[in-house]
């Protein structure tokens, strides 16, 4: 190879070396436009409805725990009663301490009036013509209800005007026909029976 060939060879090598050096990175180009939103996928099938559960048992009515007696006759003593006070006791097995403290114990009397009855809630004053007062007491014995008759004017009782009685006991927290709060103590006999679903 001649001198010119050698020179051409060296020149070619230098040229290749100079071209192999990395250049500075160019500036980042502008962001391209956003592509179109892809098509929505197909909705999956709805699952099958579950089996309905069984109906629960119907609860008891709100008056299920009300306690009431039949009409009973008290013995205030042999008539004529030559005294200003007379009383008789009635055993009430369901009259527990919880009811005594928080429930309502009410007593009604009735008097025959032709083919119907007149009803009276105790305590009851009668001023004409007998002048008698009827009241109830709860003694220390939990299940004893005492009903007494007293002379209002200080004379002897002779013959009690009332002898037939019935007690109605309402534990605390019992609502009447969907009503949240009812004052049973202020109800007459027929209203109370209607609210508590009791026979007269």
TrEMBL record:
Classification via InterPro entries: Collagen
Pfam families assigned to the protein according to its UniProt record, in alphabetical order: Collagen
Signal peptide span: 1-23
Superkingdom as given in the UniProt entry: Bacteria
Keywords: Collagen, Signal
Stretch list, region Disordered: 25-61
Start-end of Acidic residues biased regions: 49-58
Classification via PROSITE patterns: PROKAR_LIPOPROTEIN (PS51257)
UniProt protein name: Collagen triple helix repeat-containing protein
Lineage: Bacteria, Pseudomonadati, Bacteroidota, Flavobacteriia, Flavobacteriales
């Amino acid at each position: 190879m001649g001198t010119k060939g050698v020179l051409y060879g060296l020149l070619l090598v230098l040229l290749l070396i100079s071209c192999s050096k990395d250049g500075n990175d160019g500036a980042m180009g502008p962001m391209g436009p956003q592509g179109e939103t892809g098509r929505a996928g197909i909705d999956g099938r709805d699952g099958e409805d579950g089996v309905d559960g069984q109906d629960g048992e119907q609860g008891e009515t709100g008056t299920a725990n009300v306690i009431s007696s039949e009409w009973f006759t008290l013995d205030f003593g042999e008539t004529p009663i030559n005294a200003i006070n007379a009383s008789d006791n009635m055993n009430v097995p369901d009259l527990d301490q919880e009811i005594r403290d928080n429930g309502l114990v009410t007593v009604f009397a009735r008097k025959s009036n032709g083919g119907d009855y007149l009803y009276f809630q105790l305590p009851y004053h009668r001023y004409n013509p007998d002048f008698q007062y009827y009241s109830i007491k709860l003694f220390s014995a939990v299940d004893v209800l005492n009903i007494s008759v007293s002379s209002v004017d200080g004379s002897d009782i002779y013959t009690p005007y009332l002898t037939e009685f019935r007690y109605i006991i309402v534990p605390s927290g019992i609502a009447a026909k969907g009503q949240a709060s009812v004052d049973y103590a202020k109800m007459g006999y027929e209203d109370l029976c209607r609210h508590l679903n009791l026979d007269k």
